[in-house]
Each structure stands twice: as structure tokens, then as C-alpha cells.
Amino acid sequence: MSANESRLAFQQIPVEPLSAVGEIAVDFANFIAAGFEPARLRHCSGEACSLVFYDSSRNGARRWCSMEVCGNRHKVKSHRARKTDTE
């Protein structure tokens, strides 16, 4: 290993019961170890959504935490707006 390289090693310490905060910390540590890019953390574009997600799409253009929920709501709203404009 050269001077410019570094290795991270994380050890999961068992906690009974493993709290949600502990699970998040372990997931975050795994993201960092796997080449996590902070710039890919995004806030969901859904109107009533406050979730943050990691955009793992190829082009980095993901907008919603879930296409099935927030993305679908946006598309339905846009469709209804276009439909009422043409009537």
C-alpha cells in the first residue's frame, strides 16, 4: 500500500437490540468504505416528502426517494394539470 492509499475497516459491534441510529451508522460506514460520494446525497423532490436518499443512478439525475410513491404522485399531478389545461 502506498502513502497515498488508505484502507478503512469497520467492525459491527453487536448491541441488543440494535437501535435505528446504530443501523444508520453502520450503513453510513459501509457507504464510506465502498467509495461513498457525498455529492450524490439528495433531498427528495416530492412536495410533502422530507426524505434524503443516495442517488446511485448512472447519470446522477434521480429526483425522488421512490418512483413508486413520490415520482408517481408528481407524474399524476402533472398529467392532471395538462388534462385540465386542454379542456
TrEMBL record:
Stored Pfam families: zf-CGNR
Domain Zinc finger CGNR: 40-83
Stored Gene3D superfamilies: Jann2411-like domain
Domain of life where this protein originates: Bacteria
InterPro entries, per the entry: ABATE, ABATE_dom_sf, Znf_CGNR
UniProt-recorded name of the protein: CGNR zinc finger domain-containing protein
Source organism: Rhizobium daejeonense
